[in-house]
Every structure is written in C-alpha cells, then in structure tokens.
Amino acid sequence: MKLIQLEKPRKGEEVCVITTDAGVIKLRLFPNKAPKAVENFKTLAKKGQYNNMIFHRVINDFMIQAGDLKGPDGKELPSIYGESFEDEFSRDLFNFRGALSMGNAGPNTNSTHFYIVQSPKVDQEYLDLSALPLNAEAKYKEIGGRAYLDNRHTVFGHVFAGMEVVDKIAAQKTDENAKPIQNPIKVQKIEFVPYSE
C-alpha cells in the first residue's frame, strides 16, 4: 500500500500555503479523499476567515490547533454547510506527524477547527490496538504521530514543508487550557497556489 499523504506534490498540483508569525507551512490537500473537509477549509480560508487567528490550543509533542471562529455575537461560527458535517475517514490517510486534520467534539461534529499533528513519537500501546497496514505502522514509528486519532478525526491534508514552523508554534508556553500565554502565534493568511518547485 502506498502512503500517498507523504508523497511530494506533483508540478501544477494546488497546494496550501499558511503564512504564520513564525514562518510558512506548506501542505498538500486531499479533496478526493475528504471532499467536504477540504471544501470547507478552502472556502473559509479564501474568505479570509482564518486571517489573524491565533493557534488557540497548543500542546508540545502533540499538535497545534486553530480555527476557533466566532461571529459578531461571540457565538462559534458553523461550517460552510451551516451545521456540523460528517467525518470522512480514508484507509489511505493517517494522523502521522504533519497531518492536517479536523478538530471535532465527537463523531460527525466537524465545523471550522483544524489541527496539525506535531508529535515526533508514536505511543506503542496505540499501535498495538490499531489494525494498521504494516507500512503505516512502520512509518508511525519512523516519523511519529498519533495513531489513536485515526478513524476519529478526518485527515484532509499533510505538511510537506515547514514542520520546523509547526514545532516552533508547539513550543509556546501555555496555560492549563493549552492556550498560549503571551503573544500567541497567529495565522496571517492562507493561500492556494500551484506547486512549482
């Protein structure tokens, strides 16, 4: 089985560029595997909804999360579909280090939150509990990640450049709610461009 999410983008493939206060993160998206999640993320990003938004939940050696969008009334904004939408799990995508996944509050509660897995290691006990293809298990051991998130959170993209930026964001000092204490790092803008390197 090929681990498609770890392949380099093809020339001309549309990629996602997240510019943050800490540097640039470049990701591939997988619209053929998670069409609703990708469309939701892209539409919100193109409207500028994620601009100047902080990474509000940061846990070093785990993940960085953003997308806590609020309306003028202070209420959390829904997805572009007007409500939560269903999970899109794929046997081809995993919560490896670098995975872009939907944050949720349980099954089929996807809205605007997203996270990037930063964990440089994998917990063996979760690998033992997971029915993973052998090459996926080997890759978890090699690059890290959180195997127990598979089939709980929709993976819809993967970082191919800028993991040092993800690590920098994850290293911020936080309070007991995992919120950065001072000068939290923000998303400046998110763009979608053809891959040309």
TrEMBL record:
Q: What class of enzyme is it?
A: isomerase
Q: Keywords for this entry?
A: Isomerase, Rotamase
A molecular function (GO) held by this record is:
peptidyl-prolyl cis-trans isomerase activity
> Which reactions fall under this protein's catalytic activity?
[protein]-peptidylproline (omega=180) = [protein]-peptidylproline (omega=0)
Q: Which InterPro entries match?
A: Cyclophilin-like_dom_sf (IPR029000), Cyclophilin-type_PPIase (IPR024936), Cyclophilin-type_PPIase_dom (IPR002130), Cyclophilin_A-like (IPR044666)
Q: What is its EC number?
A: 5.2.1.8
Give a yes or no for keyword Transferase in this entry: no
Segments forming domain PPIase cyclophilin-type: 14-182
**Any one Pfam family match given in the protein's UniProt record, by short name:** Pro_isomerase
Q: Which CDD domains match?
A: cyclophilin
Write out the similarity annotation: Belongs to the cyclophilin-type PPIase family.
Function, as annotated, reads: PPIases accelerate the folding of proteins. It catalyzes the cis-trans isomerization of proline imidic peptide bonds in oligopeptides.
Q: PANTHER family, alphabetically? A: PEPTIDYL-PROLYL CIS-TRANS ISOMERASE-RELATED, PEPTIDYLPROLYL ISOMERASE DOMAIN AND WD REPEAT-CONTAINING PROTEIN 1
Protein name (database record) = Peptidyl-prolyl cis-trans isomerase
**Organism field:** Brevibacillus brevis (strain 47 / JCM 6285 / NBRC 100599)
